[in-house]
């Protein structure tokens, strides 16, 4: 069982259009509404894979009620912490070439009592969880150290933590030694304060995060693939997608694949790659089911080509 924590969830509406023409009246060729937020997406991917998951999240107002209903319809057990503010709604506009324009709302401001209730609820419901996945940005009212406190409490209770966040929240949490952190290339570059031009640069940056406290690093490098750096060394893998329809939630699907495959080693990396490649070929933030996966397209190696230049270098 995988428990997810999403401090700032959302309702995500995606419109598919022929082209984004500013100032024009655009007609969508398709649209959908999905539950949103990194941890929410991890739960959706875990459920789609046939595993049990609990989604702990603050919910408020009609949007929060709608979000809880959508998750329940996907077979996800929702553990709601009621908050006074309104759950946010986000909009994404997808073009045929894969370009995605996103408008993310700020979301509610949590009170000190709501913050503590959220932490306590995670502790109460994490009994028996194989992993706790803490994902996404923090809403207003939560300090960057909030994730660090959650990791510390979870470890005291004997739970394993996967952390997908960035900036000061990631930096603060490293001292509590999360079992795995999952940055993308931009977040990895930001964490070490320098550009990433090659796979070797990414490996070195991941090793620095491990030196700072992370026990393992699973880094998404976009079209270049993914990198896993842990106590046993570094592994690199790729799974080219035939076509990209929407990359919303692809990283979250990857994390779900990694955790459901055990959360360690090259086999889990291969599962992460298969899930991520499948996700980008689906509309909106739809999560892949087992039938969508193509494991045969995945390659992994411990002979990381350190000199390979990244297709999308981070400056």
From TrEMBL:
Record-level GO cellular component terms: cytosol
This enzyme's EC code(s): 2.7.1.56
SUPFAM superfamilies with a match to the protein in the record: Ribokinase-like
Enzyme class: transferase
Keyword Aminoacyl-tRNA synthetase in record: no
Keywords of this entry: ATP-binding, Kinase, Nucleotide-binding, Transferase
Name listed for the protein in its UniProt record: 1-phosphofructokinase
Coiled coil: none
A molecular function GO annotation: ATP binding
UniProt xrefs under InterPro entries: 1-PFruKinase, PfkB_dom, Ribokinase-like, Tagatose/fructose_Pkinase
Organism of origin: Streptomyces caniferus
KW Cytoplasm (keyword) present: no
């Amino acid at each position: 069982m995988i428990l997810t924590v999403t401090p700032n969830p959302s309702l995500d509406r995606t419109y598919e259009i022929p082209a984004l023409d500013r100032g024009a009246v655009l007609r969508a060729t398709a649209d959908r509404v999905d539950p949103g937020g990194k941890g929410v997406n991890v739960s959706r991917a875990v459920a789609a894979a046939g595993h049990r998951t609990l989604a702990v999240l603050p919910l408020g107002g009609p949007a929060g009620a709608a979000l809880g209903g959508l998750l329940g319809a996907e077979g996800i057990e929702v553990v709601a912490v009621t908050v006074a503010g309104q759950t946010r709604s986000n909009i994404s506009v997808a073009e045929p070439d894969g370009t995605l324009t996103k408008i993310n709302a700020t979301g509610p401001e949590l009170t000190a009592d709501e913050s503590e209730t959220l932490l306590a609820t995670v502790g109460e419901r994490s009994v028996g969880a194989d992993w706790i996945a803490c994902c996404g940005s923090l809403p207003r009212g939560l300090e960057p150290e909030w994730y660090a406190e959650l990791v510390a409490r979870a470890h005291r209770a004997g739970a394993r933590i996967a952390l997908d966040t960035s900036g000061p929240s990631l930096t603060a949490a490293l001292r509590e030694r999360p079992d795995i952190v999952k940055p993308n290339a931009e977040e990895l570059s930001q964490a070490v304060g320098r550009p990433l031009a090659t796979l070797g640069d990414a490996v070195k940056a991941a090793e620095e995060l491990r030196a700072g406290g992370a026990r393992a690093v699973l880094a998404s490098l976009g079209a270049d693939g993914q990198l896993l750096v842990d106590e046993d060394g570094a592994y690199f893998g790729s799974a080219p997608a035939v076509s990209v329809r929407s990359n919303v939630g692809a990283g979250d699907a990857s994390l779900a694949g990694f955790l459901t495959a055990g959360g360690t080693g090259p086999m889990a990396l291969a599962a992460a790659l298969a899930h991520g490649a499948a996700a980008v070929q689906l509309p909106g933030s739809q999560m892949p089911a087992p039938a969508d996966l193509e494991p045969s397209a995945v390659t992994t190696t411990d002979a990381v080509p350190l000199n390979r230049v990244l297709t999308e270098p981070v400056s």
